[in-house]
Amino acid sequence: MLQLVDYLIIAVYLISIVIFGIYLERKASAGIDSYFLGNRNMPWWVLGASGMASNTDLAGTMIISALIYALGAKGFFIEIRGGVVLIMAILMIFMGKWNRRAKVMTLAEWMRLRFGEGREGNTARIISAVANLMFAVGAMSYFTVAGGKFLGQFLGINDEFASIALVALALIYTAASGFYGVVWTDVFQGVLIFVAIIYVCALALQISTVPETFSVSIPSGEGFEIQQWNFADWSSISPSLTLELPGDYSVFNLFGGVIFFYLLKVFMEGFGGSGGYMVQRYFAAKSDREAGLLSLLWIILMSFRWPLVTAFAMLGIHYGATQGVISDPELILPTVIGEYVPVGIKGLLIACFIAAAMSTFDSIINSSAAYWVKDIYQAYLKPQASPQQLLTQSRLASVVIVVVGMLFSYQIKNINEIWGWLTLGLGAGLSIPLVLRWYWWRFNGYGFAVGTVAGMLAAIFTKALIITNLNQPQYQEYALFLIPSISSFMGCIIGTFLTKPTDLEVIDNFYKITRPFGFWGIVRKNLPANIQQKIHNENRRDILSTFIAIPWQLILFMLGITFMMKRWEIFGNLLLSFIMLSIALYFTWFKYLSKEVNLSNDL
Prior knowledge:
The chain is mainly alpha-helical. It has one domain (4-601): Sodium/glucose cotransporter (Up-down Bundle). The protein contains 25 helices and two strands. It has a two-stranded antiparallel sheet. The longest helix is centred in the first third of the chain and has 49 residues, at 159-207. It starts with a helix and ends in a 15-residue tail after the last helix.
């Protein structure tokens, strides 16, 4: 598929990004605060642009393109499970600033602020660190498979060799330059991603017209089945409650129930505060205002992903109508680029999508290594470690996480399958304790630890034993969500009530720093009346703004889909709704960004 000029463009990009990362090594070597958070001195627009690049991963782009191709606009609703990244609306309004106020390095370190520095807080911290490391290994496996599947198709080499090369390059500059390298290379790679978006969308608008009826391919075990669509149903943004899909996608046939669970899962994640590389950018933010601004930019930039994946889907359908149906929907990207993109531009686009893959790899590598260094090695194994020893451990942890993730990736064949398990099963199992920690004063560190372990084990058990033996595929998504969620919730309740409450001084300090809404009456009643009112006003605005921001983000993303599909009437209605919601969001949220409550001046 490639000519010499394409290889040269790809080589220049890869060499440049590694050199740039190594160049930043000196800044990152000042200490672990520099290595993992950039000394909390990064501009908000850099953090927001970096977040967009990290979220616009190659694996997600491949699977979302496959879903839009195979299911049309219904694929957007399926990707509420993770690809829409709907938790960004919640992070933008209040959860981002709540996380920033803790002034910690990792989610696990945060546990000591919430549960204290004794045995309770340490138990929660260790469990949180281990859980996040496990999730990082799973995520690395998922992204590795997709990267290899994409690059191997072009280079004509084994997918596994291609993934090793891709991840190894990301590891080199990430291990050297830490968070500085992650963020600034992400900004550069984000520019390349936008080059790809503009070119592919223009190409699709120019040459691709979806016929009134057409066929697509859907995975089915070891093979594929053909699904017939008409354009009106395929492009409809008002899908029915049930579908009749064949093959592996039959798990989505109880569509209304599946989407309900996806929304519930996303709300749990969002109201729980997220973790990994997403929350790392909020820990690095300078102020509440910048936490909000970086979120706003992050969402706006990320919305351009949806016209991109729709463009790929439309080109894939055009290819199927003229040359034959693409057998594997997950290979739409390499097929379309190989067929429709000329020499030279082809190399540039491949470099762009390699950038998308590497921007995700580097974020996962850096953020997950922090859990080992900060929450296990420095906290318990060697508290007196020198800055140089900590940096060495940071780089060693990066290597180990990559190697373990790649070893697990050899067991994965279908990226949609592992994505569903990570986002719905393991994600839901880990979300319940993360939610309860913010809103319920009685919830303690032991409840967090028991609930997290129960959720992880239930997610693994459900995947290994129940899902593989469930004869009715449409119930798999229900089982994958309900079993880990219920197990985690029961673990939280049992662990909390079998142990004593967290010390009230610890809870009081946490509440004054973070100021969350929820069941905090035991603490709130002791504050001066004027402070209670300030916090109440902020909480009330945040709750109202969240109900506006969620549909605002959904509509923003759907605008790109309907524009590419040329559904102009629907596009016009969505645009009007978006403008009205934007105005409401300005008056309920944006105009208050710089107005922080300062408790220290009033106590």
